[in-house]
Amino acid sequence: HEDNLVFILCQKELRGNIRVHCRVRPILHFDHIQGSPTTNRVHGPEESQETVFDEVKPLLTSLLDGYNVCIMAYGQTGSGKTHTMIGSRSEDPTAAVQDSQQGIIPKAANELFKLISEKPADSHTVEMSVVEVYNNEVLDLLARDEDGATVGVKREVITTCTGTSEVPCLTYELVRSSAEVMQLINSVLKLRSHSPTLVHMDSSRSHFIVTLTVSSKSPDALWWSPRCSRAASSRTSSPASSPCHSPCHSPCPSPRPGITQPPIKTKLQLVDLAGSECVGMSGVTGAALWESSCINRSLSALSDVLGALVERRPHVPYPNSKLTHLLQNAIGGDATLLIMLCVSPTQRFLAESLQSLGFGARARQVQREPSRRKNTALKMK
Ligand SMILES: Nc1ncnc2c1ncn2[C@@H]1O[C@H](COP(=O)(O)OP(=O)(O)OP(=O)(O)O)[C@@H](O)[C@H]1O
């Protein structure tokens, strides 16, 4: 069809270890798509949520094997990032989303708890945090007011003495099932900023980051009922981390030093980025224009970070934006990182689609240390 694009993706250098998939959202009169090695995988418009998730599923196994994992959706506004990460929302917010319409986050939570159920009882606990980065501020979406209602509370990102980034006082909630994960996400999604634009009537104006921290006891510690889990059964602040600057952090005590090992913690970060936007096309003004400018600046900071990593520069500008500072451990650290590029294959969005593919190509050129396993003794039958 003359209005649509056929993507012919080609790439000279494929040297990095960041995986990049491209998802093309369906449009009317779509003919066909050709994929090639710019990305590790191209998901055509006809591919279901299930098929997309099949590619992601093995990462959940590696999470339980001791690797940090980050899955991030990137793309222009309206290209299908929220559809890919969370899934289609029904008109009726109280209605359950059909399995076939669920995105990566609910499916990943489901798979994670399925895998945990196959492990020895009480060997794993999962805590969850949810933040949004809105107008370059980090908001803790699980923080509650005195009536118990979730309210976005501003938090800072700091660099710890080990050079990693950390959010002191971030709220973590213990979750025991994928239903609990989705209940919490649905309760905070209403806090996420949305605005109508000329390109997308329900455009997300913030980056949305769900983190599931899995604590796994080493096999020799299974007899031990950890005091940490007692703390985690109520609401906690920053228990999953070791921020040396965090005033809220109280390290989990080892009950018998020298005999048991503390639990190993691995993180699954699921990121629905706000969409890059050409303000001329989206027609935003006033507060929405400021939001767009913050979104575009943070995405360009993300691209700068990738550029610095590609060139192996001694200084990587993570602190230039709250988004990159927050994602520092996943982008430059030891996490297995999958970027899902979302594109709308129409002539009208050619420049945005090329920009997204350029971002993906840059990510593919980053050569990082191979993902590191937290503890080789972790694998439990
Ligand atoms: N692969 C797909 N299959 C079916 N519908 C899709 C697909 N991708 C996107 N859509 C639909 O397109 C619309 C826009 O998608 P979505 O809200 O996910 O965009 P977005 O990239 O998150 O936008 P923004 O950055 O502005 O928030 C939604 O109605 C969504 O259901």
* Unreliable spans: 10-14, 28-38, 221-235, 238-257
Category by helix and strand content: alpha/beta
| Beta fraction | 15-25%
Which geometry do the CA atoms define? globular
Textual characterization of the structure:
- GO terms for molecular function: ATP binding; microtubule binding; microtubule motor activity.
- Residues 17-366 form the Kinesin motor domain.
- Residues 235-259 are annotated as: Disordered.
- InterPro entries: Kinesin-like_fam (IPR027640), Kinesin_motor_dom (IPR001752), Kinesin_motor_dom_sf (IPR036961), P-loop_NTPase (IPR027417).
- ATP binds at residues 75-82.
- The chain has 381 residues and is an alpha/beta fold.
- It has a single domain (19-90, 101-248, 262-365), classed as Kinesin motor domain (Kinesin, 3-Layer(aba) Sandwich), CATH 3.40.850.
- Helices cover 28% and strands 20% of the residues.
- It has 10 helices and 15 strands.
- It has helices spanning 49-64, 81-85, 104-117, 178-189, 227-232, 279-282, 286-310, 322-326, 328-332, 350-365; strands at 19-24, 41-43, 69-75, 124-134, 137-140, 153-155, 158-159, 165-166, 171-175, 194-195, 203-204, 207-216, 236-237, 264-272, 336-343.
- The strands form 3 sheets. Strands 1, 2, 3, 4, 5, 6, 9, 12, 13, 14 and 15 form an 11-stranded mixed beta sheet that branches. Strands 7-8 form a two-stranded antiparallel sheet.
- A hairpin with a 5-residue loop joins β7 (158-159) and β8.
- The longest helix is centred in the last third of the chain and has 25 residues, at 286-310.
- It is globular, with a radius of gyration of 21 Å.
- The N and C termini lie far apart (53 Å).
- Residues 25-26, 75, 77-83, 88, 200, 203-204, 274-275, 342 line the site of adenosine-5'-triphosphate.
